[in-house]
Amino acid sequence: MTFYSQERLGLFIDGANLHAAARSLHFDIDFKRLRDHFASKGRLIRVFYYTALLDEQEYSPIRPLVDWLDYNGFTMVTKRTKEFTDDTGRRKIKGNMDIELAIDMLEMADKLDHVVLFSGDGDFRRLLEAIQRRGVRCTVVSTLRSQPPMVADELRRQADTFIELVDIQDAIARPPRTVSAQPAVADDATY
């Protein structure tokens, strides 16, 4: 992985895609560690995190993460999911953030030397090509080691560098929780 200490970095995190990739590899992302890991590689300008939120729920399981990221230096880009019925009559929920991510990356391109995309979505191949034409280096972070692989081959080939998620797991994973053993105490027990 080639990073230069003076280059301006921008991280673009497709939240749903990164979550699915990490889950397939059986670990959770510690976003503070992720941010700090990449901040140590260059001049971190901005960290964008993209996610869709369910409209109908007052409480979403992702809300604590969204709030934490928002209060801890991440630029949150969210939108409400849309519900529709497909042609077979099944209820579907749509919450694609690809356009928002693409617009932000294109708008930031002149302020960055290197973008790091946390997604394996092949739809981003042309975006990386456009960013590279502006002289910006592109790194993709995803995984080939899941079944099936979570990164599209065309996206991996377009990137200047591909980082296998497993290779940085020790730097960005949430440490496993340790359960402290409490001695069993019996009421009025005679020893």
Word description of this protein:
It is a single chain. With 191 residues, this protein is α/β, with parallel strands linked by helices. It has one domain (8-83, 92-159): 5'-nuclease (Rossmann fold, 3-Layer(aba) Sandwich), CATH 3.40.50. 30% of the residues lie in helices and 25% in strands. It contains seven helices and eight strands, in the order E-H-H-E-H-E-E-E-H-E-H-E-H-E-H. It has helices spanning 15-24, 31-39, 63-71, 98-108, 125-133, 153-158, 169-172, and strands at residues 8-14, 43-53, 75-80, 82-85, 91-94, 114-118, 137-142, 161-164. Strands 3-2-1-6-7-8 form a six-stranded parallel sheet, sandwiched between helices. The protein is globular, with a radius of gyration of 20 Å.
Structure, briefly:
This protein is an alpha/beta fold. The protein is built from seven helices and eight strands. The N and C termini lie far apart (61 Å).
Task: Provide tags for this entry.
30% helix; 191 residues; two-stranded antiparallel sheet; 7 helices; alpha/beta; six-stranded parallel sheet; Rossmann fold; globular
Shape: globular
Question: Helix tally?
Answer: 7
* Radius of gyration, taken over Cα atoms and rounded to an integer in Å: 20 Å
* DSSP E strands, number: 8
CATH superfamily annotation: 5'-nuclease
> How is the main sheet built?
6 strands, parallel
Unreliable spans: none
> Per CATH, which architecture?
3-Layer(aba) Sandwich
Strand content: 15-25%
Helix and strand string, N-terminal first? EHHEHEEEHEHEHEH
Placed side by side, the strands forming the largest sheet appear as 3-2-1-6-7-8
Query: What is the straight-line distance between the termini?
Result: 61 Å
Report mean pLDDT, rounded to a whole number: 89
SS class: alpha/beta
